[in-house]
Amino acid sequence: MRKSDNARPGGSPGAGASSTRSWLVNGAHPTAERARRQQVRCIHALGPRPLGEMLREIKRDPAGIDQIVERYAGLDPVRVEAAGGRDWLDLRDLLRRVRR
User: Fold this and answer.
1) What is the mean pLDDT of the chain?
2) Can you give the pLDDT at residue 7?
3) Structural domain boundaries in the chain
4) Conformation bin of residue 84: beta by default, left when phi > 0, alpha when psi is -120 to 50
5) In whole angstroms, what is the distance from residue 6 CA to residue 1 CA?
6) 57 close to 68: Cβ distance less than 8 angstroms
């Protein structure tokens, strides 16, 4: 068997749907999967509060998940931090600040 016969995952060049499926990662094209992973990294860098807010939005509108994830991934972490939106204030932290 020549090396070119096995060039595509799943066997010969005419293997059909199974060879196409082998290129997918978790049911998505590798490029789309990489893009989603990058979005997740960007959202993670925003901190707990933006992640929680995003999950709340997704719960309200599960069909809009792609648009919601894209919007949150596009937020600037420096601006989120500057606006104090990275984390929720716990009640104890709020009381400490008020007592000062």
Assistant:
1) 77
2) 45
3) 17-99
4) left
5) 8
6) yes
